[in-house]
Amino acid sequence: MDDPLISNPQYKGAMSIASATVHLRLATRDDIPVLEELVQKSVRQLSKGYYSDKQIESALIHIFGVDTQLIDDKTYFVAESNDQIVGCGGWSKRKTLYGGDKFKETEDPLLDPETDPARIRAFFVHPSWARRGIGSQIMEACERAALEAGFKELALVATLPGEPFYKAFGYEAVEYMEAPLSGGETLPGVRMRKRPV
Fold this sequence. Notes:
26% helix, globular, alpha+beta
């Protein structure tokens, strides 16, 4: 786990995991190189057994990556421990449901909290820190922030390895889908929703 940390604490939140303290803060654009590396590691290792190597590599080119709009909107969190970024994830008040910058072609319009669900977006955890509560801490921060912004429902697209995590948080599968990749490949996923209030 040699990811460097670019420190700029903005969010108050901490928890103890196996004698290591994990803090949440809002991501900044300075974090993008570290986050891109984290996404690659997370997807390559934690998607094994769910997707083929070909699907994983194609998805890293066409779908997975950092969405700078989330960072600019101050709705994207990083989790840090011992001067390292060990996880990330966020929520969105915009229309895009999944995918990084390379996936979007147009401006991302705002949602209406009265009629639209907020989006839960782009959760990635360093493989060495998987299943140690980091995703849960980020999810709690995202749901709290979305509710404070006036949203009454949440929506997301889960990868197959992520589906059990979201189910544990009360998200229900709405539709199984296939995201298009290059060369006729697709990446199976699950549209999910939750009405928290």
